[in-house]
Amino acid sequence: MALDTREIYVTALKNTHALEMQALQIMERQVERLTRYPEMEEALRRHIEETHGQRTRLEEALQSLGDSPSAIKEGILGFVGNMMALGHTPAQDEILKNTYANHAFENFEIAAYESLLTIGEAAGQGGSLTGFRQSLQEEEAMARRVRELIGPTTKRYVDLTIAGEKADR
Amino acid sequence: MALDTREIYVTALKNTHALEMQALQIMERQVERLTRYPEMEEALRRHIEETHGQRTRLEEALQSLGDSPSAIKEGILGFVGNMMALGHTPAQDEILKNTYANHAFENFEIAAYESLLTIGEAAGQGGSLTGFRQSLQEEEAMARRVRELIGPTTKRYVDLTIAGEKADR
């Protein structure tokens, strides 16, 4: 059975909503554990706030179509489950792996929003797209911020490690 | 026990090597399955070739330090295992999930190389870093290419789906 563009759009909205719910869990878990990397902690706290707004935009778009977020889609969870696992893996280099994973995760979200915008345009759903363009810009800004922090975070990890101090998170 | 910078660098080289080995598996699996998305197939084929060169650079750096790649590190595999699973999940929107995951994966690698360069500089390992800067540029180019393809790939997915044709890969 062929789907129509509206059905494809609703599925994309639900998948993106599930992704944002996972994003919140991953970031909240990390931020609780961070002690030695205050710039990363601040970036995560700011983006958690933004993510609540992104989630609301998706819920409003679903409501305007007479639908609502459903249980988390397995495909998305399959990807993200491991990111969550990374978020609380006790490892000497936990901060590095989380930083790489955060950079990957933001870029997963960037791709998901760019795709959602394409689907929304095909489905003639202009009304919600301004908000999703803002969400995309927020994800891009967070991806840039994480990337800026890769070098300084790695340098601090190396310095703390060779000093024999706590460096993991 | 405190580690020294050389030990941290060797660990980073081994982790990045494990990451590239996984990259090859993920891309080779996807590329075999792609039938309706020739631009993505071409991008993956080109990047598979580059990845062989990236892998060689890492092996040469390890050899120059009297070391060799070891078994795949669990931390990296934990992240990447799921990407692989995505690579052969039979789903109506397999191509979309793979595209998002490829964009995420390239950006995981970008973070890993940027971090490796920082560690290599701290360890005074200038000799290998020119090659790793090239690897980083290759990952950035592939990330850009995947991003360029998100819109056209999504559009083709929508068009094929509403026409009732095979759209998944």
UniProtKB/TrEMBL annotation, chains A, B:
Protein name, as recorded: Uncharacterized protein
Domain of life: Bacteria
Pfam families xref list: DUF892 (PF05974)
SUPFAM superfamilies reported in the protein's UniProt record: Ferritin-like
Organism of this sequence: Methylorubrum extorquens DSM 13060
